[in-house]
Here is the input.
Amino acid sequence: MKRDPTEPPGATASAAIGTAAAAAAERAAAACAPLLEQAVAERVTPGAVLQVAGPEGSGALVARGATAYGGAAVGAGTRYDLASVTKVTACLPSLLGLMQSGEVALSDRVDRFFSNAGWMQEPSLGAVTLEDLALHRSGLPAWRPLFALTNDRRVALANALQSSLTEPAGVHLYSDIGVIVLTAVIERVTGKRIDEYAEETVFGPLGMRGAGYGPLTGDALLDVAATEDDGLRGLLVGRVHDENADALGGVSGHAGLFATAADLTRYAQAWLRLEAPFAGPDLMRSAVGDRSGGEGARRGVLWRCAEAGWPFGPGPSASAYGHTGFTGTSVVVDPGYGCVVVVLTNRVHPRRASAEGVMRLRRAVHAAVAAAFEEEGA
Here is the structure.
């Protein structure tokens, strides 16, 4: 059953909610197991890991398939390349932490931090605000092949900061380049690379022990899902799939993070409880409210908000929000049902193709989770 996400429960009610959520998570996992098995059998992905949980505890986990075709079985400890889920798991909490401390504001322009951003261009990236970047309405293109220009991190960031605004101002266009610019701002303010700052302020405090940027080495390579054999770099195992993140040394706010389902579940639960080491509840609430103004997709600060036609289907409640990643990953926080849902796949192995199979899987998973939480006592 759905609950009022704005109503804080008392201690007795919290215990009851926790027990009901744990039971619902088990039902959801049981219902989703055949969906994962079918996706593996149909070669949508070589492997998949699902975790469903309430506000506390580990909930229920299902793992099916392998890290690669012919590889070892996936499990709770398998790390996946999160791709764009990195945006809400590393870039967003880092940005909110700086907002919480008063070091940045969404109204700040890029040229507050980089005086030469968009230099000699009109319109100029320098005049774009952090909120414009976070809402994907900056006028920046969706993508540029920075990796085809350089493999030097500083040069790649400089190229991003000199990007031309090719789209109409205020019009929604999902842009990796915009989040790379946000990464540059975070690093300028903190004086640290985003991997170091996020480890100190997000991953470490939340106990996300398997979360971190690549390239992974040593024992970490023993249980990581492979992605693409792209011809230029060979088969990618523990090296970021996203080419621009790779040109940035594997470290960016838009992509590059590897993590387990448990890591993402811990992170999502912090949002569900509105209890996080990087921001207070008021700031977190403001980040998940719809700021689109009716233009384009409903969205908060980097998060995508529930609406008809969003990637997760009609299953999640109206208060849900989430994000997807190109490699086949996703996370949803659903205050209405009091649950979080993490789906990890490596659907780009051994090569990228249509995403329709994993899109069907996501919609089916979230329909099954909704049905489980709708049952009496959930």
Residues 147 and 316 are 37 Å apart (CA to CA). Strands lie at 47-53, 60-65, 80-81, 212-213, 257-259, 304-305, 321-325, 329-334, 339-345.
